[in-house]
């Protein structure tokens, strides 16, 4: 009954001073809204990143050459060659797909326009491994690779950069370092996946790149795509075994290559997202603290304004506890409402953000419960002092307070 | 039966370095069912006396027995409980909660008494009925006239069936006609056995009581029975 009366009185008081109550809880609203939005964005970014990594090479390992060391002495690097990729391909212990990549950039020319573009040579399964799709034309064939045909598949932005359309370039000649190549396929736009975009690259058969463009047998990297039912760690061990045998590395000697696991990047990014979330949550915490002080200030004003009411309540038999409860409930309700409005606002902000990002709309329930509970706790903490002031008022003096 | 008994009641206030004696030794006996007016000019100490015998304040020295229980040494919360159960207050400025209905205002002391809601509602309705406001229960104070507001306050003061009804200048904010109505209501209550103490500085209000006590400079100056002209 007493609690109901306190709640009733708190609702009346907040409604009577609606504008003031709203302004007071604004800091709580903003704090809670940013916590909710940031936690949701953090969560969304993490999910989107994981999806992206799974989709675009979450199960693709890249092998690079690295410096060979023995007892701290560097022996110089031992490059990866096409034969290494072939050895991996021929090893059938693990279910994987292999493609080497020879990468570099060359001047390309179409009509009167020219530009510098990334030219890379691969086996025919490269697009399949990377999950890239050809929108028009076709992929190059194994025969074209073996006979070092001058054919190229281009990313859609290459055409744009050369001030023409992909459709115009298909089946036309493109000059790479002055040598004519026939454009046989156009990739679908993949968009930028972080630091590289497949859209502005030119792709040619591996042996064509090796013999006709770059004149080397060394490759920049070997991509290993591991099927879903295979364990990534086991695959890494298998790659190591094959390449150590290929490179004739004795026991106790370090690898002269390194295997990049894409999930490492994912871990790194997740960590960055986590740091970002902590930072924003900290700022939101400060905003809640400031909000709490604002609430305390307004509650002190409210106690002074309502001195006569407090005096009356005491005259009618309100105990210390009853008055305390009345004002703490009011402070908590003020913060609680701020918290609830903040959650709704934060969810709305995230809803807009997620629809732009095409992320799933999801807010962790724990974040909602946590931030509402926390804002109520802010009200409790900052309500205690004003409530004590009210409870300690002298009834006889308060009744005659002007 | 004695309801109020005070022995050499003193109350002093410190004003900066000075100490002001508002009450300088009050000896008072009030029996159940009496209708008393306490008179005195402002600054005489009549308000301080009401605060102490209304358990809103405690004396600096002396003893105060309410219903044969010494209350002069009680703690704040015990005094709050006594005010809740034994004392009903009516104030000059009504002191109603502006945003609550008449019924909710009257229920307030019952809420502090920890009464169950349905019982509290019944008793508050009965109390409003007693003061003739059964048709105004859901009205807020701003929708009521001054006289009606004061009657809500009287209903609130009586809802816990207190031993004493205190009225501090109950007609001070009312026109004379409405003031007379309120006094008539007091007389009616008195006839039904309610002990009433009215604090006033108006002689014609005081003369409607049975007994008039005049305070001056913190002491009882006179204490006499009034014989009404029937």
What does this structure look like?
The complex is a heterodimer of chains A (402) and B (230). Chain A starts with a helix and ends with a helix. Chain A has a six-stranded mixed barrel. A two-stranded antiparallel ribbon of chain A has the order 2-3. Chain A has a two-stranded antiparallel sheet with strand order 4-12. Chain A folds into two domains: 2-53 and 266-399, no CATH class; 79-246, no CATH class. The longest helix of chain A has 44 residues, at 262-305. Chain A has 402 residues and is α+β, with helices and mostly antiparallel strands. The model of chain A has no long low-confidence stretch (mean pLDDT 87). Chain A is built from 14 helices and 14 strands. In chain B, helix 3 packs across helix 4 (117-130). The longest helix of chain B is centred in the last third of the chain and has 16 residues, at 176-191. A six-stranded mixed sheet of chain B has the order 6-7-8-3-9-10, with helices on both faces. In chain B, strands 2-1-4-5 form a four-stranded antiparallel sheet, with helices on one face. Chain B has 230 residues and is of the alpha/beta class. Chain B has a single domain, classed as Rossmann fold (3-Layer(aba) Sandwich), CATH 3.40.50. The A-B interface holds A 1-2, 4-5, 8, 12, 15-16, 308-309, 312-322, 394-396, 399 and B 51, 54, 56-57, 76-77, 80-81, 83-85, 89, 91, 95, 97, 99-100, 104, 108-109, 111-117, 120, 156, 160.
Distance between the termini of chain A: 30 Å
Q: Superfamily at the CATH H level of chain B?
A: P-loop containing nucleotide triphosphate hydrolases
Give me the secondary-structure category of chain A: alpha+beta
Strand order within the widest beta sheet of chain A: 5-6-11-8-10-9
Portion of residues in helices of chain B? 25-40%
Cα-based radius of gyration of chain B, to the nearest Å = 17 Å
Radius of gyration of chain A: 34 Å
Number of domains of chain A: 2
Distance between the termini of chain B: 27 Å
Number of helices of chain A: 14
Give the count of helical stretches of chain B. 7
Query: What would the average pLDDT of chain A be, to the nearest integer?
Result: 87
The second-level CATH architecture of chain B is 3-Layer(aba) Sandwich
Helix content of chain A: 55-70%
**SSE succession of chain B:** EEEHEEHEHHHEHEHEE
Number of DSSP strands of chain A? Answer: 14
